[in-house]
From TrEMBL:
PANTHER family: ALDEHYDE OXIDOREDUCTASE IRON-SULFUR-BINDING SUBUNIT PAOA (PTHR45331:SF1), OXIDOREDUCTASE, IRON-SULPHUR BINDING SUBUNIT-RELATED-RELATED (PTHR45331). Keywords: Iron, Metal-binding, Oxidoreductase. It comes from Stenotrophomonas indicatrix. It is an enzyme of class 1 (oxidoreductase). Signal peptide: none annotated. Residues 47-123 form the 2Fe-2S ferredoxin-type domain. CDD domains: fer2. GO terms for molecular function: carboxylate reductase activity. The gene is paoA. This is Aldehyde dehydrogenase iron-sulfur subunit PaoA. Its EC number is 1.2.99.6.
Amino acid sequence: MSPPSHLPLSRRELLKLSAGSATTMALPAVVAAAEPDRTGARAPELMQVDFEVNGTARSLRLDTRVTLLDALREHLHLTGSKKGCDHGQCGACTVLVDGRRINACLTLAVMHQGAKITTIEGLGTPDRLHAMQAAFVKHDGFQCGYCTPGQICSAVAVLQEIKAGIPSHVSAALDAPSAFTAEELRERMSGNICRCGAYSNIIEAIQDVGEASA
């Protein structure tokens, strides 16, 4: 069927024009839907968190969704603890909370009200190294160094666990004290990944400190 003779457009041209107009009219709706409605958005919920970090009382007002790792790095500027995988799989963010090692990327800061937190900065200083830090230097227990803060914090906790009689998966007996064997230490340090592959040197450093303090 031909278009009426009084129309200046052909049928094909009319269809093209109609399709273009429909698309143009739909665009504002798509853009509007993609933009967040800030007028009705809730403000982040903030909470006061008081804890002790490396022997110093600290007080922060934080979004309740902030992880302990981000609180330490972004709010307290303690950047020794590293953000590696951010999924609790590499151990680069390991810190000590009330003497126990945890992955700081997997826990919220607000969960540790009143806790005593120790990061790599709190273990020792360049002129007064912790025994484990000195052992890592002595045995060349690092290469790039990215995982080293977490490795050292975890190693310090491992020795405390062994001394406390806490068994591991490879412990010979649940009621017998564990030894500082390479097998025992590898199992206990398995949550800390070293992409440079300095594992044998790390184990030697931990054994050195463990045997010296036994």
